[in-house]
Write a structure and sequence with these properties.
This protein is α+β, with helices and mostly antiparallel strands. Among the domains are: 94 residues, no CATH class; 152 residues, Protein Transport Mog1p, Chain A (3-Layer(aba) Sandwich), CATH 3.40.1000; 93 residues. It is 44% helix and 24% strand. The chain has 18 helices and 20 strands. The protein is globular.
Amino acid sequence: MLASGAKPPNRQATAAITPPKKHLKETKVKLLLKSTWIWLAALALATAPTLVKAQDEAADLKTVAVVSIAPFQKVLGDFQYLSELADQANFGRMAAMMSAPFTQGIDKTRPIGVVVRTDGQQFSYIGFLPVSDLKSLLLILQDQVGEPQDMEDGVFLLEAPLPIYYKEVDGWAFVAQDKESLANTPAKPADLLGTLATDYDIAVKLNLNNVPQLYHEMIIAQIRSGIELSLEQEPGESDETFAERQKMVELQVAQLERLFTEITDLTIGWNVDKAAEKTYFDLSYNVLPGSKLAEQLAMNIGVTSDFAGFLNEQAAGTLHIASKIAPEEIENSVKQLNAGRQKAFAEIENNDDLDEKSREAANRLIDLSFDALIETVKAGKIDMGMTVDLAPSKMTFLFGAFVSDGKRVEDGFKEMMKLVEDQPDFPGVKWNADSHQGVNFHVVEGPVPATEEETRKLFGETLTIVLGIGEKSAYLSIGTDAIAKLKKAIDDSLASAGQPMTSPATIVVSSKPILEFIKSIDDNAPIEAALEALGGKDAQLTINGTVSETGTKSRVSLDVGVIKAVAAAIAVQQAEKEAADAAEEAEEATEEAEEATDDF
């Protein structure tokens, strides 16, 4: 009997009543016209002249966006540094040579910036460039921008493809789209960048709370119309299921609208840290105090985990998430999961490869699985960890997660086994084969056929799968020493339980154990070169973040050793390809010569 009152659809009942093609075409045309009108309105507003007077700037103009470029000597130096690591030093030298003529007259020790502002209806910008000799710079760019025209008050006009007004003040060249914007230039323009120019090579900060409401509404309307254009009733989809899917889309649009309303500013930045031998990309945002997003952030400050033992940063790969779910998000997630349940039912019902017995078992499995997920979501937290442990010729996968009802997960596993128990090579399940710390282990273990060479290389001659079930936990382990390693991860998790996590979500991928594992099953020159480039050290890709009451920051960080290893492998692979091509050409030439000799 299916739980939660959910019933798999009758095959005839689920046959979709597809709207007439003519009706769909008319709907698409209407939506297209609506979308086109929105873009035309946006274009008209964006290209309208800025009528704000200079004396009103301080009172009326709000900053919408800031673009920051670090001093040119740092940006160019970092580009050359990365190109050398990637064994492409010529690119760095070429960039320096090509940029030299166009940077004469620029002060390479100070940052460059652009500030976009609004008066509530239209946008204007002012850019600033540090100069040591503006005349030399303009002389070099004369073919592109033409001769400057004196517009009085120290302002000049360049008739480029788009008119540019500029004014030089105290070693800064200010540029704008109109003369009025240059009437009151800032005395210290670099201060407008805040810490962006020192934190990042290139960065953009968007002050979303300063975007006029008109544009907020236009963006949401454009997103909505785009979704509506793509949202069509699928073949075999019932009217009821399609209606539920439409409701889910409305929820997603509402969530996007809330993000636009509650996020005050968003910053994206990229930087190179030579001292730490890393390059990284940051995404951060702040939220309105007292907003729902602020409440969600506050919930996740100092969040604890019962599965931190699965976070092993020395492993080939590891993932850990510990997060609390806000009540309103629980409700939305439950609706989405129930919609997913109905879609899964429909797919099973329409699968002609399944007999009635398999279809019933699959439906029970789907029902139990979604019930377990929904009840876990209702508990209001996500707590899970995963590790892929690699060693030469050995691989183990470990996973552990909080669940609201371990017994329900176990029942789902039993239904899954019913789907494969009739298979001739299925070794069966050893129920309650072992236990540890209140967790019961169910084991599936059998020989890997000699014909499955790739699987044997990964897991050995015997494949072991372990499902662990606790009262509020579920575990999965596959591979070498599956039970022993799972027990250790559980012990490590218990030892660190209750300790605050430094990051609500962490992903770490390590290159050295991955390369060593690949070498053990397929030794080749590119992998050898990559390992040699690492010099015995590890190099990682790391994704993590921090949370505060006012905002959050996520960072994707890459050790430069990864770049060196990849570049070394590509270089050897390319050399091997060139050698093989040369050998093939030589062989063809020899054959042609032999044929010519025979003909002679």
